[in-house]
Every structure is written in structure tokens, then in C-alpha cells.
Write a sequence for this structure.
């Protein structure tokens, strides 16, 4: 069945280093992917998205890479800051369906 | 522009009682989604509604759970005869028309069943 999963459940990085969070998906029909950040006690916050006709998209300090060949998605955070500490979820969606399928999440801890 | 609002933020119910969770979408948004999150887990889709219509309820448990989004007022997620397994955080998201690609989440309601 459909699934979106993460390779690493936890990640610790030094402040200032770059972070890479990985995600695998199995539904080849998914054509829209999103990364969310969830801080403790709060709702998920949209970070960046990418459509399947792209393989890279950049935002402010964040970059999402999509490799459709191996069904892999990654989120890169440049110069990681303490405020980046949170749980990060990848999510997928098919254009023809309305629901978003979330992966289990990766907890990012930034060491000052 | 106020974000998605949910209330209450915390709700405690005894087994067998009813829980009502409210969600007010962002201004101009006509699509509402409900998700459930168990501790240490991701969000699970429950239901997608537009005004006065349930579009996709494939994630809703068959019994005890219902949702509505009336013409006026907030969307309501209703859980009848709650059980301990219903304890979770329930998040609402909204998106603008025509189709909900980018969803904006509320702060969630944390339901505890004692």
C-alpha cells in the first residue's frame, strides 16, 4: 500500500552545520510533496513543497530534493540554528486525491 | 489575517462522554481537513470537508466519529462515547479554493480520555 517513511527517526547536529533529513515514498502516483515542521505543542508548519515535475526547489535556508527514480525526498537545512529543533514530516499527495499522507517524522536536535 | 483556530486546546473527557472539537479556518478558506496524531507518530488523515459537504471521509472510524462544516460557523469533529484509545492530538487544517494543496494547520486540540 501507500507509505511515506523516513530513514532516520532522530538527528542531532551542531549549530551552524547543515542538516539533511531523508524520506522515502512508495506511491509512484504521488505528484506533490511537502515538508512540515512541528514544534512541541504546536501544529505542523509548512516549510517547502515540490511538484513531481521538479527535482529541486530552494527556499530561505532550506532546499528540497526529489529523486523520482528511487522515490526519495530530502530536506536540507543550511546553517542549522537552535530554532530549527523540531520534528520534521514529509508528506505526499496525488493531484486527484485530497488527502495528504504523512510520514512518521524525524526529530531534529540542534546542539549549541 | 488570523490563522486556523481550534478550541478547546485541551479537552478531558471520561469514557463514554462526548467530545466536540471546533475548527475555524483561515479567512477565505473553504476547505477543512481533520487529522489525528498519536504520541510519537505522524498525522493520520481523517476527513476532508467543504462547506456543507463531506468530500472524503476515508480516514474516519466507521463508528462514533462524525464531522461537519456548516454554512455558518466552525467545522466540528464529534466523537461519541469516547474510549481511552481516542486520546490524541486532533489537528485541523484549511486551504483556499480551488483545491487544497497548501494546508495551514491549527494548534490542535489535545483530547485526554480518563
Amino acid at each position: 500500500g501507500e507509505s511515506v517513511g523516513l530513514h532516520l527517526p532522530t538527528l542531532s547536529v551542531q549549530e551552524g552545520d547543515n542538516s539533511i533529513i531523508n524520506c522515502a515514498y512508495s506511491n509512484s502516483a504521488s505528484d506533490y510533496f511537502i515538508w512540515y515542521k512541528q514544534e512541541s505543542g504546536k501544529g505542523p508548519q509548512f516549510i517547502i513543497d515540490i511538484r513531481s515535475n521538479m527535482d529541486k526547489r530552494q527556499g530561505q535556508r532550506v532546499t528540497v530534493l526529489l529523486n523520482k527514480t528511487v522515490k526519495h525526498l530530502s530536506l536540507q537545512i543550511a546553517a542549522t540554528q537552535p530554532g530549527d529543533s523540531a520534528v520534521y514530516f514529509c508528506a505526499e499527495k496525488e493531484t486527484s486525491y485530497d488527502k495528504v499522507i504523512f510520514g512518521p517524522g524525524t526529530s531534529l536536535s540542534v546542539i549549541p | 489575517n488570523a490563522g486556523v483556530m481550534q478550541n478547546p486546546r485541551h479537552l478531558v473527557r471520561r469514557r463514554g462522554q462526548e467530545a466536540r472539537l471546533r475548527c475555524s479556518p483561515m479567512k477565505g478558506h473553504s476547505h477543512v481537513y481533520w487529522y489525528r496524531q498519536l504520541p510519537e507518530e505522524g498525522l493520520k488523515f481523517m476527513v476532508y470537508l467543504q462547506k456543507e459537504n463531506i468530500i472524503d471521509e476515508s480516514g474516519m472510524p466507521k463508528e462514533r466519529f462524525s464531522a461537519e462544516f456548516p454554512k455558518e460557523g466552525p467545522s466540528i469533529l464529534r466523537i461519541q462515547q469516547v474510549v481511552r484509545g481516542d486520546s490524541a492530538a486532533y489537528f485541523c487544517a484549511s486551504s483556499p479554493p480551488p483545491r487544497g494543496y497548501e494546508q495551514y494547520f491549527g494548534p490542535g486540540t489535545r483530547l485526554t480520555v480518563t
